[in-house]
């Protein structure tokens, strides 16, 4: 198993890869495909083991973490890796593979591809639901039928997000960075009874966003299935986070309308040459939060379309972060 630890609100896996959970805008679910929204800072990541007497007993397992999110808040995953020696990464939402829509399992699969290679994949903002677009990751309580897990399995028992990270086989890449490479931007480290009751949250589908999930440029045989780390990230609401940790949760992000009103940037990605894998059929059929609200006769007041001036959309290369230029 690869070593896993938390540094500066990033989960570091092995020697090179780190994952952060980025606070962001929930884009309107109005049928349009939006550019990439910015990152507004990391969600704080806590080790469940540090609160073993407060969290549910099922959370007291290796490599288990939790983050605070508000209901209907969005998140995207930012991957910080080494181009000279990448990793294969699977992402699950409630034990549903976010790339293929299949049930969560340990191996990698390539028919269809159910994982990403990081780098070149710099981030993932949602489930693979369309041709070169995703539906945004949005937090919703379990037990209401909104989550991807609930829609595809009929039950909501797992929630949260799951990660599997694999090392390449020996000899496929250098053991040390070549002189022409700099290590990718991961900062150095900074100088009673168990079984509490927590109402966990899961991941539902939000609005459409332009995003490609790149084909594996090296081939599935590149990855060593015996050298990996398995990580679970539970999601709790702000009130529960404060009760568990004694810490204040982050404030609610600004709305997309407010953000655009002040002329702050959105992002597009110049990555046409990298291609994209096919959409997952089951994930394409998942109803979004807004669609389920409509089916239930509920009126959401935050789905108004946003007109984004072309001057506010900045073009990035794949290794640039969403937040660059803010």
Question: Could you provide a short overview of the structure?
Answer:
The protein is mostly beta strands and 326 residues long.
Query: Which bin fits the share of residues in helices?
Result: under 10%
Calculate the terminal CA-CA distance, rounded to whole Å. 37 Å
Portion of residues in beta strands equals: 25-35%
The number of helical runs is 5
- Rg of Cα set: 19 Å
DSSP strand tally: 18
Helix and strand composition category:
mainly beta
Q: Describe the largest sheet.
A: 9 strands, mixed
What's the SSE pattern? EEEEEEEEEEEEEHEEEHHEHHE
- Unreliable stretches (pLDDT < 50, length at least 5) are 182-196
Mean pLDDT: 86
**What is the subunit arrangement here?**
single chain
Model description:
The chain has 326 residues and is mainly beta. The protein contains 5 helices and 18 strands. The protein is globular, with a radius of gyration of 19 Å. Strand 1 (4-7) and strand 2 (10-13) form a beta hairpin. Helix content is 10%, strand content 30%. It has helices at residues 148-153, 238-245, 256-261, 281-284, 289-295; strands spanning 4-7, 10-13, 17-23, 33-34, 46-47, 64-68, 74-80, 87-93, 96-97, 116-118, 123-124, 126-130, 133-141, 161-168, 201-210, 223-236, 266-269, 313-316. The strands form 3 sheets. Strands 1, 2, 3, 4, 7, 11, 12, 13 and 15 form a 9-stranded mixed sheet that branches.
């Amino acid at each position: 198993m690869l070593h896993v630890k938390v540094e500066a609100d990033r989960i570091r896996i092995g020697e090179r890869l780190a994952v952060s959970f980025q606070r962001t805008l929930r884009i309107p679910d109005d049928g349009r495909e939006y550019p990439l929204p910015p990152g507004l800072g990391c969600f704080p990541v806590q080790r469940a083991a540090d609160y073993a007497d407060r969290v549910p007993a099922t959370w007291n397992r290796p490599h288990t973490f939790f983050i605070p999110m508000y209901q209907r808040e969005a998140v995207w995953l930012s991957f910080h890796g080494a181009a000279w020696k990448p990793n294969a990464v699977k992402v699950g939402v409630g034990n549903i593979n976010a790339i293929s829509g299949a049930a969560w399992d340990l191996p990698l699969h390539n028919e269809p591809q159910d994982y990403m290679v990081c780098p070149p994949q710099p981030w993932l903002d949602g489930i693979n639901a369309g041709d070169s677009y995703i539906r945004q990751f949005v937090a919703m309580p379990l037990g209401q039928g909104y989550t991807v897990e609930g829609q595809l399995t009929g039950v909501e028992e797992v929630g949260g997000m799951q990660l599997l990270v694999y090392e390449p086989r020996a000899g496929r890449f250098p053991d040390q960075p070549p002189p022409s490479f700099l290590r990718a931007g991961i900062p150095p480290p900074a100088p009673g009874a168990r079984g509490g009751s927590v109402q966990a949250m899961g991941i539902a589908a939000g609005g459409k966003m332009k995003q490609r999930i790149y084909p594996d440029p090296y081939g599935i045989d590149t990855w060593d299935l015996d050298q990996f780390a398995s990580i679970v990230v539970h999601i709790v609401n702000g009130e529960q986070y404060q009760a568990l940790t004694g810490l204040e949760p982050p404030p609610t992000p600004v709305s997309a309308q407010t953000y655009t009103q002040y002329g702050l940037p959105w992002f597009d990605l110049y990555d046409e040459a990298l291609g994209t894998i096919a959409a997952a059929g089951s994930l394409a059929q998942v109803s979004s939060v807004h669609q389920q609200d409509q089916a239930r006769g509920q009126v959401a007041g935050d789905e108004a379309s946003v007109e984004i001036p072309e001057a506010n959309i900045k073009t990035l290369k794949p290794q640039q972060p969403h937040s660059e230029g803010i």
